[in-house]
Amino acid sequence: MSPSKNKSSLVLSFLKRGRTWILLVVIAVGSMSFADYYFEISKNIDIFSSLFKEVNTFYVDDVEPSKLMRTCIDGMLKTLDPFTNYFSESQIENARIQQGGKFGGLGIEIEIMNGYPVITSVTQNQPADKSGLKVGDVIKGIDGNPTEKRTKEEVNKILIGEPKTKVTLQIERKTSLFDTKQQSFLIAREEIQETNVPFYGMVSPEVGCIKLKIFNEHAGRDVKQAFDSLKRATPNMKGIILDLRGNPGGLLNEAVNIVNIFVSKNQLVVNTRGKVDEWNNTFKTVDEPSDTAIPIVIIANSGSASASEIVSGTIQDYDRGVIIGQRTYGKGLVQITRNLSYNTMLKVTTAKYYIPTGRCIQAINYAERNADGSVKHIPDSLKVAFKTINKGRTVYDGGGIDPDLQLTLPEASKLVDKLISQNYIFEFATTYSILHTSIDDPAKFRLSDKDFDDFVAYVKSKDLSYKTESEEKLDALKDASTEEKYFDALKEQYETIKKKLAHDKGQDIIKNKSEIVTLLENEIAGRYYYAYGRVKKGNQNDIEVAKAIELINNPTKYNELLTAKK
């Protein structure tokens, strides 16, 4: 047996006897003996203990031992990866909820607006929905305690609890353009499991689409039922779109089950490999597939992580479908939880995911990411090339899954960014839903010209402040010229240009009408038809969905993307 395997076995034997602190020995690699590593661990623990004691004894100000220790722990774990975390006793309950996926809740999502939590999403047939809560309701109090200035995390922590326990929400609800009323709702929490498939349907006469939001329990069953239903209803269906955008992952076995819908029985999906051989696993498809021939287009982006990357990467490795969109998140790490002393817990990374070609989906650099969470540019020298299994296409590891067809999305205008961030789209949809008891099916619903004029008037009545890109650059010129003592000579020209750039809010909204109408229609559709309506309406003007439909309807282009380049 190799030295590293000897060390792993020894560690496991200690773990089984409850000596969890010996877990630190797992970091041992290379040729150094176990005794040397044990000495290094003991020495450094002794140094740390002495240092901690001296700081607490002699530092000029009083220190909080628990706070100081938490800083030390967080600093140490920060040098590893973002998913190895320590949980104090007070954090244990939320951590277990996150790990288990089931909890007692109301079935709502909230955001803080104007200092109060506001309901931004209600899940159909969950406690809040059955009690009559609506999107746009302002939560003024919970069990008699005011919510003003509370953070989103604080409010969610109060709302989540044991199933069957009750909570009273004090709600402020708009009743007209200018009036509100106060209501109280006594709601019993229920075990909530987020919907895996908020939408499936035909997005063109011969192309179906399944939106997979998360990999909770039964995700494989839900996707299979959706796919089989679409095939039965549309026997001439040419292809299927699997939308994994923004899907953070979830249960590994559900990723395997979803791959199995389209890939033959007994095919490798993913390996997990770490230092402890006994914890390494191989996951293969176990059932007969539903369809191994129908064209598949998976849409992914930087928010597609973990199980989403296993599905898209495995489909790519077998040349079973085409991936379009943007590079995925790059989260290919396996964690387990270890109970520590004093009712604390460690979530620790123990292995990495390797998909069928042998490549790892984990980003090489754990920490360096773009603002949207996507992996930063990875030099070609750090990438390793692999060949897909059936067609020999070149694919790479080191940073998530690269799409077969990269799509660059247009940036939203400064105005549209402000309309979203300052909640004007959201608030107008709330007002609209008060004035209209119902709307047409999402596929047929259209905002009228009068409705859009009402939105323009609504925004004009608000204090909408924003600067165009030209104005921002002009301000930067002023700052630079002032610092370099040139501004006095430029001041007259500066003021002239500034006046010419002054923009009219109403005209800017009209210039961006198409984009704004799309956002309004999507938000309003969600008020009447929940997540299903929002996705169904959104698909109509979705650039990436349109590209997926185009690919499926163009077999030549689709097959070109699945052909190895010479």
Describe the structure.
- The chain is of the alpha+beta class and 566 residues long.
- It folds into 4 domains: 3-63, no CATH class; 103-192, PDZ domain (Pdz3 Domain), CATH 2.30.42; 199-333 and 350-408, 2-enoyl-CoA Hydratase, Chain A, domain 1 (Alpha-Beta Complex), CATH 3.90.226.10; 414-468 and 503-547, no CATH class.
- It contains 18 helices and 21 strands.
- The strands form 6 sheets. It has a 6-stranded mixed sheet with strand order 10-11-12-15-16-21, with helices on both faces.
- Strand 19 (385-387) and strand 20 form a beta hairpin.
- Helix 11 packs across helix 16 and helix 12 (449-460) runs antiparallel to helix 15.
- The longest helix is centred in the C-terminal third of the chain and has 28 residues, at 513-540.
- The radius of gyration is 28 Å and the shape is globular.
- The two termini are 44 Å apart.
Protein traits:
5-stranded antiparallel β-sheet; 2-enoyl-CoA Hydratase, Chain A, domain 1; single chain; alpha+beta; 566 residues; disordered N terminus; Pdz3 Domain; 18 helices; 6-stranded mixed β-sheet
Report a brief summary of the structure.
Helices cover 40% and strands 19% of the residues. With 566 residues, it is an alpha+beta fold. The model is unreliable at 1-7 and 9-31 (pLDDT under 50).
